[in-house]
């Protein structure tokens, strides 16, 4: 009897005897595995592990099931669980990389790490049941699986994409791109959905799970309490991704106005359902449908391509550009760790880069002015004493003539003299040249007014 109340016939082979098959089948009926667990194979344990995980989210269960079916069981399924070694697991991942590369579709390092994550979780459960003493998956070496950093669709990247079709692995729009997209779709019925995602950084499932009962337009707050996912072709309403994803967000006046219009058109007062974005039947929209509609609208707007989830990346970067600190951005996105927010979800927008460059240049110019300003308050007596005690080098008449010869600068010709017999050192000459270079750069690129 399965978890859905229906009978399911399970077929498993490879047992050495009828008693071994009955013992393995007994585990499915709730009986415990024999003390030494010598008859359980890796494939059988993976099936048992998936069947007994009751708190997995639908998307996680679907991902684990795919990894077990496509990768783990074909390579390790027939191996006795107690005999599984690090070498066997390492050989499996090496074969996965080689075979996928030969087919022209190499597995990404992130996918390999996720496969190992599923295997690690299953073997940890076997350790808790006393079937294993250690987890060989911990010591398997895999390619580096660092998260990609988001880059901004600058004018140069957009020009390259239009000319060659080349695009970054992860890219976000600038504020101008986001404004152009929202302006172009302002009459579309899903405009409020994309508005919320672009400004608040909601996940796709979170925005589809919004109910009118989660929104207080008077207090200008929005509560993220549910999400919508797809499981076996059906929409499932489940809790958010993590505890920190349960959050309350403040709404700006523009967003409140958008939600008021949506409430007047399809809210409960006008005969609509409780979900903000739903079908005429009242069921929430499908996540796949929203993604498909977003891609079509981006193409119609002739904007550089981004994924639907990249709107979330863009919201984080725009919040940072608006002057919010990382802790505020972390709370906006509902992240467990501020490290994830800083490493993955924030990109340096061009306006921020220019502000940082101007601030650094202004600091240097301020220091240059302070150093180049003549010192005041120095008494004539002390200056005369220093000049008297300073040794006077012997100079020829030609040298004195050279020191006192006329020089010309940008203000005209004048006679410049140095203290008697003093020739500037190399250090003094270089410092004077540096000051002149910085001041010239300042004059040719004056600071913007205001």
Which regions are unreliable across 5 or more consecutive residues at pLDDT < 50? 397-450
Largest sheet: 3 strands, antiparallel
Strand arrangement within the widest β-sheet reads 3-4-7
Helix content: 40-55%
- What is the terminal separation in angstroms? 74 Å
- Succession of helices and strands: HHHHHEHEHHHEEEEEHHHHHHHHEEH
Share of β-strand residues? 5-15%
The count of β-strands is: 9
Describe the structure.
It is a single chain. This protein has 450 residues and is mainly α. Helix content is 50%, strand content 7%. The strands form four sheets. The protein has a three-stranded antiparallel β-sheet, with no helix packed on it. The chain has a two-stranded parallel sheet with strand order 1-2. A two-stranded antiparallel ribbon has the order 5-6. α2 packs across α5, α3 (58-76) packs across α5 (109-128) and α12 runs antiparallel to α13. The chain is globular.
Q: What topology emerges from the helices and strands here?
A:
Blueprint: H1 18-28, H2 42-51, H3 58-76, H4 86-102, H5 109-128, E1 151-152, H6 155-164, E2 171-172, H7 175-184, H8 191-200, H9 204-208, E3 215-216, E4 221-224, E5 227-231, E6 234-238, E7 247-250, H10 253-266, H11 287-300, H12 310-321, H13 326-333, H14 338-344, H15 350-372, H16 380-389, H17 397-403, E8 406-409, E9 412-415, H18 426-444
Helix pairs in contact: 2-3, 2-5, 3-4, 3-5, 8-12, 12-13
Q: What is the compact description of this entry?
A:
The chain is mostly helical. Helix content is 50%, strand content 7%. It contains 18 helices and nine strands.
């Amino acid at each position: 009897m399965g978890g859905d109340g229906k009978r399911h016939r399970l077929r498993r082979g490879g047992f050495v005897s009828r008693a071994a098959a009955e013992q393995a089948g007994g585990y499915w009926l709730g009986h415990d595995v024999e003390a030494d667990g010598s008859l359980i194979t890796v494939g059988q344990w993976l099936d048992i592990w998936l069947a007994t995980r009751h708190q997995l989210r639908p998307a996680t269960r679907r991902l684990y099931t795919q990894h077990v079916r496509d990768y783990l069981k074909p390579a390790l399924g027939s191996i006795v669980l107690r005999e599984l070694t690090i070498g066997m697991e390492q050989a499996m991942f090496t074969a996965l990389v080689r075979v996928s590369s030969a087919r022209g579709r190499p597995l990404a390092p992130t996918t390999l790490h996720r496969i190992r994550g599923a295997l690690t979780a299953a073997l940890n459960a076997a350790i808790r049941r006393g079937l294993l003493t250690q987890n060989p998956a911990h010591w398997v070496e895999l390619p580096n699986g660092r998260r990609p950093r988001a880059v901004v669709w600058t004018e140069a990247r957009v020009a390259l994409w239009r000319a060659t079709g080349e695009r970054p692995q992860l890219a976000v729009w600038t504020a101008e791109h986001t404004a152009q997209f929202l302006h172009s779709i302002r009459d579309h019925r899903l405009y409020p959905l994309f508005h919320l995602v672009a400004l608040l950084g909601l996940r796709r499932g979170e925005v589809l799970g919004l109910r009118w009962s989660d929104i207080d337009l008077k207090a200008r707050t929005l509560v993220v309490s549910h999400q919508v996912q797809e499981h076996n072709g059906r929409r499932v309403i489940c809790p958010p991704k993590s505890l920190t994803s349960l959050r309350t967000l403040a709404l700006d006046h523009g967003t409140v106005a958008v939600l008021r219009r949506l409430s007047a058109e399809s809210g409960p007062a006008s005969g609509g359902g409780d979900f903000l974005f739903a079908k005429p039947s009242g069921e929430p929209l499908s996540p796949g449908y929203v993604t498909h509609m977003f891609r079509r609208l981006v193409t119609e707007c002739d904007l550089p391509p981004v994924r639907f989830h990249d709107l979330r990346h863009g919201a984080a970067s725009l919040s940072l550009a608006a002057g919010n600190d990382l802790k505020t951005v972390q709370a906006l996105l509902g992240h467990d760790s501020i490290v994830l927010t800083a490493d993955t979800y924030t990109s340096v927008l061009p306006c921020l880069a220019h502000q940082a460059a101007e601030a650094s240049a202004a600091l240097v110019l301020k220091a240059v002015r302070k150093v180049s300003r003549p010192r005041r308050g120095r008494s004539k007596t002390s200056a005369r004493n220093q000049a008297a005690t300073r040794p006077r080098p012997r100079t020829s008449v030609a040298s004195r003539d050279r020191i006192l010869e006329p020089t010309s600068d940008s203000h005209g010709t004048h006679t410049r003299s140095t203290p008697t017999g003093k020739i500037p050192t190399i250090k003094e000459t270089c410092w004077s040249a540096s000051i002149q270079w910085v001041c010239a750069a300042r004059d040719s690129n004056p600071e913007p007014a205001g």
